[in-house]
Amino acid sequence: MPFTTFHAKAELQKGVQVKATSRNFEITVDEPKELGGTNTGMNPVELTLSALGACQAIVARVYAKKFDIDFDDLWIDVEGDLDTDGFLGKSDVRPGYSDIRFTFHIVTDAPKEKVEGFVAFIEQTCPVADTIMHPVNVSLHDIVIETDKE
Fold first, then answer.
1. Other beta carbons less than 10 A from residue 56's beta carbon
2. Taking Cα atoms as reference points, which of 17, 22, 19 lies closest to residue 7?
3. Mean pLDDT across the chain, nearest whole number?
């Protein structure tokens, strides 16, 4: 599976709630009440942080044997700084994250130097981190105006 195109659909529901689907999976995306939502799900920027942590955890699981690292538990805490005034048009600051930080937690008997090398590899290999850290072409493909929803 060398080159793959992934697909997701985001369908606006009531208010700012969105039904996001990919393959046979669905999640509810919403904003907290203070940002005009009903707080029924994570918002898109929280999903971005979650996607980063989940991707790093998956890379860790997939490559642990290659690095000869056994672990009993692993989690990644991810946090980001975002000025909502950019999104709300109250300021000319960028609408996205200015900084994202993560803390890698691992329960293992492996020596620190080995774990540090493992984590460095995860940072370099995680597709979500790569997408966030390097410019990616994002473009409008088409606009489809439909007269009747089926």
1. 23
2. 22
3. 95
β-pairing verdict for 25-29 and 18-22: antiparallel
6 belongs to a structural domain? yes
How many angstroms separate the first and last alpha carbons of the chain? 34
Regarding whether 72 and 34 lie in a shared domain, the answer is no
What pTM was estimated for this model as a whole?
0.91
Q: Is there a domain that residue 93 lies in? A: yes
**Domain extent at residue 121:** 43-133
Predicted confidence (pLDDT) per residue in 94-123, tens digit: 999 999 999 999 999 999 999 999 999 999
Q: Note whether 40 and 20 are within 8 A (CB).
A: no
Confidence at residue 89, expressed as pLDDT on a 0 to 100 scale: 86
Among positive and negative, which fits the CA dihedral 85, 87, 93, 98?
positive
